[in-house]
Amino acid sequence: MKHIFANLIILSIVLFSTHALAGERPVVRMAITTSTENSGLLDIIQPVFEQVLDIRVHVIAVGTGKALELGRRGDVDVVLVHARPAEEAFVAAGYGVARHEIMYNDFIMVGPEDDPAGVRSMRDAGKALARIAAAAAVFVSRGDDSGTHKKELAIWQQAGIEPEGYWYRQVGQGMGKTLQIAGEMQAYTLVDRGTWLAHRANIPLKLLVADGPDLKNAYGIIAVSPERFPNVHYPDVERLIHWFGSDEAHALIAGYRVDGEQLFYPVN
Amino acid sequence: MDSLSASTAESFRLLFSGDAALWVIIFTSFTVSVRAILIAAPLAFVVAFLMAHLRYRGRRTMIAGFSALQSIPAVVVGLTVYLVFSRSGPLGDLQLLFTHSSMIIGQILLSFPLLVALSHAAFQAADRRVWETSVTLGAKPYRAFMTLLHEIRFGLIAALLAGFGRIIAEVGCSMMVGGNILGYTRNIPTAIALETTRGEFAQAIALGMVLLVLALLLNGLLAFFQGRGEMSS
After folding, report:
1. Is A231 in the B-facing interface, judged by CB distances under 8 Å?
2. B178, B103 Cβ separation under 8 angstroms
3. Cβ distance A98 to A223 under 8 Å?
4. Is A31 helix (H, G, I), strand (E, B) or coil?
């Protein structure tokens, strides 16, 4: 037994030293939104840019609000999010170098088959939300300061409605979980098209509102300022952002299909 | 119901076909938690020994303190470690956030009070004469300490298993300080949380089964060693 304790100490030293030897390629930390992660796009493009740029990218998937907060604290090197006003504020405050729009898709509204608020086939999300509020039909909100949540709040504001009441439920969860909850409650919710396509087989809801001008969903990538945080790996991030503007990246993004449908549209 | 049985069948296929991504996650869980427990345990045993054998002011408070800390929520530990190791935090220059090291530190903090409290009980129950006899026979304090450890080994192993059981299954701290990075800091509990939100229930169930089997195994071993401990005392 005495030997066992001595051996355990040696073993722990060995375990630690192998870990120290493991680093080779430079590591870039990228905070992305859960909707990007859930869409599966990254599984396709990440191996490609890691190979082309000879870097390792550690992806941390959180809501847009949290992703920007990680950037403000200097805990990641680059953020890929979708909430334009918040992104512009992030850059203006000196936390980010510049915002590059790399792709877009759209939000849609889903709800129960019997559609108690009568919003089926509407295009204008603001008017649809007004009907849901008027009918006091149950609406599930992300409630987590994510890009989707910010978008939803912006649409409410444009419609001039302060959502409150027993029918308005903030769940504070990621997009996939929120969809599942909305499905269980037979409620309406706002969702990015990518997450919807990935989940629709298992969610007892229908696509009701789409293609409105207020439903565009643009994704931006921002390098965290090397002036504010000297530790960030800015040169590698710059190469990564440059790669997102390449033909190779555009072809991969435009070619990505879920259930036979195109999910993202690259921006030149 | 249909999706439950289909997901379960798929999860068995994932587990036994050697799905690489799944086993990387399981491997991460084990390397992180094993390292955490190996670092925490020796220190915890020394602290517990001192609490059991020395008489000093504040000893009772210390014992009560470690007892109370056993129930500290993992998310609180996670938040604390996050704020300390964030690049804007006091130890940010070490750049440990979102690495195995920060996860290990979080798990050390989580398991330490449990290890101290349980091993303290074992030291307390040990016959003081073991220590006194060894010293009288001319053993140096280190040798005497090792003899004592040997004497109460079953109690200490039970403490190790309980500590390991706590950290292998916790999700809050790993998620916050590890970042759930695929192929690096994603461990069993954070992967289950993620796969559930993604609607990939087969993966979640497969990993859940690994944890379940492990929990049963640990509890079985725990019962066994506690039984041995009682017999030998």
Report:
1. yes
2. yes
3. yes
4. strand
Q: What residue ranges in chain B does DSSP mark as E strands? A: none
Q: Which amino acid is at B112?
A: F
- Min Cα–Cα distance to chain A from B168, Å: 17
Q: What is the ipTM of this complex?
A: 0.70
Three-class SS of residue B27? helix
| Interatomic CA distance for residues A204 and A179, integer angstroms | 10
Closest Cα partner for A200 from A117, A111, A139?
A111
Burial class (CB in 10 A: 0-12, 13-18, 19+), A23: exposed
Helix/strand/coil for B118: helix
Whole-prediction pTM value?
Answer: 0.79
Local structure of residue B94 (DSSP, 8 states): G
Task: Print the SS3 string covering A175-214.
Answer: HHHHHHHHHHHCCEEEEEHHHHHHHHHHCCCEEEECCCHH
Task: Please indicate whether, in this complex, the C-beta atoms of A1 and B153 are within 8 angstroms of each other.
Answer: yes
Q: Do B197 and A199 touch (CB under 8 A)?
A: no
Chain B positions in Cβ-Cβ contact with residue A1 (cut-off 8 Å): 149-150, 153
pLDDT digits (tens, 9 = 90+) for A161-198: 999 888 999 988 888 888 988 998 899 999 999 889 88
Give dist(CA B91, CA B74) in Å, integer. 20
CB of A101 closer than 8 Å to CB of A209? no
Considering only the beta carbons, identify the residue of B35, B93, B181 that sits closest to A15. Answer: B35
Distance of CA B27 to the CA centre of its chain: 15
Q: Does residue A101 come out as left (phi exceeding 0), alpha (psi in the -120 to 50 range) or beta?
A: beta
Q: What is the pLDDT of residues B114-164, one digit of tens each?
A: 999 999 999 998 888 888 888 888 888 889 999 999 989 999 999 999 999
Measure CB to CB from residue A75 to each of B86, B100, B101 and give the nearest one. B86
Q: Which structure tokens are listed for B198?
A: 């993604």
- Report the residue of chain A nearest B193, measured CA to CA: A177
Other Cβ atoms closer than 10 A to A239: 16
Contact indicator for A107, A195 with CB cutoff of 8 Å: no
Q: Are A231 and A143 in contact (CB under 8 A)?
A: no
Chain B hits for A57, Cβ within 8 Å? none
